[in-house]
Amino acid sequence: MSAPSSLENLIEALRCLPGVGPKSAQRMAYHLLQRDRPGAQRLADALQQTLSVLRHCQRCNTFTETDICERCQSSKRDHGLLCVVETPVDMNMMEQTQAYSGLYYVLMGRVSPLDGVGPRELQLERLLARASDGVVREVILATNFTNEGEVTAHYLSEMLKSRGLRVSRIARGVPVGGELEYVDPGTLAQAMRERKSLAD
Amino acid sequence: MSAPSSLENLIEALRCLPGVGPKSAQRMAYHLLQRDRPGAQRLADALQQTLSVLRHCQRCNTFTETDICERCQSSKRDHGLLCVVETPVDMNMMEQTQAYSGLYYVLMGRVSPLDGVGPRELQLERLLARASDGVVREVILATNFTNEGEVTAHYLSEMLKSRGLRVSRIARGVPVGGELEYVDPGTLAQAMRERKSLAD
Predict the structure, then answer these.
(1) CA of A38, closest CA in chain B: separation in Å?
(2) How many CB atoms lie within 10 A of CB A74?
(3) Residue B9: which of A4, A41, A49 has the nearest Cβ?
(4) ipTM of predicted complex
(5) Does the pTM of the predicted model rise above 0.90?
(6) CB contact set of B177 (below 8 Å; sequence gap of 6+)
(7) Percent of chain B scored above 90 by pLDDT?
């Protein structure tokens, strides 16, 4: 005599959330039913609403409710700069810095041969077309500094440079506020190698 | 230029889940949209379905899809035993032990004066009526061994005994597999006080 099937079903469905195992799924389901039915209703509606209206921007791939996202349409952004990131979250992180006012291209992934993701799966020819619109003057590669992100950046760099585009990579180094004692040796080695001259 | 409003809305709605702050809500929303749209749809459906069909059993208060839950209707359970627990999850925990074959009464809470939850809010007269059906011969109090659970048990015990009902409390002590070194002093003190004679 177990839980009612709709409840079992909800517990199972909650497990699609990242980091949610059977125990927390159960806790979440009971929490919603015992203490927050309005919250559960709002969540159901928000999921439904998001699934029906949210799609990918036809220019930069990020999530949008229109064909072309607000950012790609904005005249306040510098359309000559194109920053390539792996995911919409990375794009948000970059936006939060307020240090960049160009446009983006979201790969929605990274080159990862082990997972069967190659240049074709990432549809890199779309990026190539986007970057070759005659307006973009510099492509800034901001993929992660993981093995896969680095491979992706290398691949993109070769591909874009062969088309005569100017390509740059965001800087690596000791994080702001970072103490040398706690920085990993690889980062420190890079910081040393890529040191900047302070002479003017 | 922030995220589209439906996405913002979903991130906000996910925060109704226990233990989910702004960062994980964002991670969950993007995960669902980037990698598991079918999962998001299943979750939306499951929430909607559960909210519409799930209600409280009229006898024991647990979640059910029928007026009286399967367990309360079952002839395989001992209707003379009534175990009082705080929540449906506690009931599930007890069921998983397979050490009990009676029925339950779920308080859906505990006496907690600080939160404004008194006997009236818990509708304890319903429990009284339930326990006085002439079939129940023993009420087993299985509220938590927290301050509030203990107060609740004490209150229930007085109330039920004054009606001439037999009342018991589940045992306290060192957990099975527990080492004395790691048990808190309060538990150990109780285990000492409630020691059982091994003489026959």
Answers:
(1) 9
(2) 12
(3) A49
(4) 0.70
(5) no
(6) none
(7) 52
